[in-house]
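@channel sequence for tomorrow's demo:
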Amino acid sequence: MLTSVDTELLRVLADPLRLRIVTLLARETLCTTHLVEETGARQTNLSNHLKVLREAGVVETEPCGRFTYYRLKPEVIESLAGQFADLAQLARLTAAANVKRSCP
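structure tokens (generated this afternoon):
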């Protein structure tokens, strides 16, 4: 089942700009400057979204001189995907067994 932590992660990833950032970081490690170029978002707005992703444990940082690079933590996405796969499997089993609650 999805826990409150997972619900928070879903909320974090539900934002379109954060999802775009995650998609970009799945392809390569990028700094804020790259992400501004790719998304067209303002630097302050992007930094706020990156902070949310960092605090949720979705991305990690790597300092490089005066820049900070961001990297996606794939295990977080894999964990969430696994929980959805478990829900799908439960739904398949429930449908196959024709499990339903009777009405009063």
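heads up for whoever presents: The longest strand covers residues 59-64.
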